[in-house]
């Protein structure tokens, strides 16, 4: 980027350091079909502790959304914190973009780590993925917590005014901001005090867009973008 150092990279570096100090290490699972899944996992797996999968929502990577939570949970669970495909260190050469594909990919990656049973927490878009996993792999999923994810939403709900946006095109422009103006609009929906966003220098917002919007564009196809909508 121009005019500013990358504060996003500085913050992410601090998060990585904090994860490692909390006993959580990075691993990469190659599924041998062009798909690679990056995880943060407990350094030592304790068979007396339950397995817990934390699925992030829209954002640059899992570490941004689960940093504070994971450090507090790590003494009590065997943690598995993946980057969804196209986020952070996870990628694929396959054409699929749906939440079903994300669920299948996570399940395969967990099986590759010999994880047979687990509970999960899904946040935002991760809630849709977690819902799919519970539906598709009921024998493996024990307990489910879904946060901030309208898993029962339908496209006509948007037309009927249930959400603050009226159609898919408008939703995608807000959820995948490509300008400072659209990012400030997104902040206006999700921040308790959105007026504070006006105090953030534009170069820092550009930095965040460069770290986040690319992943969102890859992850959400035009046919699947409605599953990412959770604005209200």
Describe the structure.
This is AB hydrolase-1 domain-containing protein. The protein is an alpha/beta fold and 232 residues long. Helices cover 41% and strands 17% of the residues. It is built from 8 helices and 7 strands, in the order αβββαββαβαβαααα. The model is unreliable at 217-232 (pLDDT under 50).
Secondary structure layout plus pairing:
Blueprint: H1 7-21, E1 24-30, E2 35-42, E3 51-55, H2 62-73, E4 78-82, E5 91-92, H3 99-112, E6 118-123, H4 125-136, E7 141-147, H5 155-159, H6 168-175, H7 180-190, H8 202-219
Parallel strand pairs: 3-4, 3-6, 6-7
Antiparallel strand pairs: 1-2, 2-4, 2-5
Helix pairs in contact: 1-2, 3-4
What is this structure, in a nutshell?
With 232 residues, this protein is α/β, with parallel strands linked by helices. The chain has helices at residues 7-21, 62-73, 99-112, 125-136, 155-159, 168-175, 180-190, 202-219, and strands spanning 24-30, 35-42, 51-55, 78-82, 91-92, 118-123, 141-147.
Helix content: 40-55%
The helix count comes to 8
Question: Averaged pLDDT, please?
Answer: 83
Q: What is the number of strand segments? A: 7
Using only C-alpha atoms, the radius of gyration works out to 18 Å
Q: Which residues form runs of ≥5 with pLDDT under 50?
A: 217-232
Major sheet size, sense and barrel closure: 7 strands, mixed
Proportion in β-strands: 15-25%
| N-end to C-end Cα span | 32 Å
- Derived structural class: alpha/beta
Using brief descriptors, characterize the structure shown.
single chain; 232 residues; alpha/beta; globular; disordered C terminus
């Amino acid at each position: 980027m121009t005019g500013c150092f990358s504060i996003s990279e500085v913050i992410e570096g601090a998060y990585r350091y904090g994860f490692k100090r909390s006993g959580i290490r990075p691993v990469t699972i190659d599924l041998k079909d062009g798909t690679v899944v990056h995880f943060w996992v407990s350094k030592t797996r304790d068979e007396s502790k339950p397995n817990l999968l934390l699925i992030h929502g829209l954002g640059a990577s899992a570490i941004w959304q689960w940093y504070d939570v994971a450090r507090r949970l790590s003494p009590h669970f065997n943690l598995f914190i993946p980057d969804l495909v196209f986020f952070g260190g996870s990628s694929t050469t396959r054409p699929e973009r749906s939440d079903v594909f994300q669920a299948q990919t996570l399940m395969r990656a967990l099986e590759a780590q010999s994880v047979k049973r687990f509970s999960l927490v899904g946040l935002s878009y991760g809630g849709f993925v977690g819902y799919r996993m519970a539906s598709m792999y009921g024998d493996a999923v024990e307990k489910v917590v879904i946060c901030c994810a309208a898993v029962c939403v339908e496209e006509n709900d948007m037309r009927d005014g249930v959400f603050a946006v009226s159609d898919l095109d408008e939703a995608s422009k807000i959820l995948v901001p490509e300008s400072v103006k659209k990012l400030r609009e997104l902040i206006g929906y999700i921040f308790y005090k959105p007026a504070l966003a006006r105090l953030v220098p534009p170069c820092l917002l550009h930095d965040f867009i460069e770290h986040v919007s690319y992943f969102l564009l890859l992850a959400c196809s035009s046919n699947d973008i409605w599953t990412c909508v959770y604005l209200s």
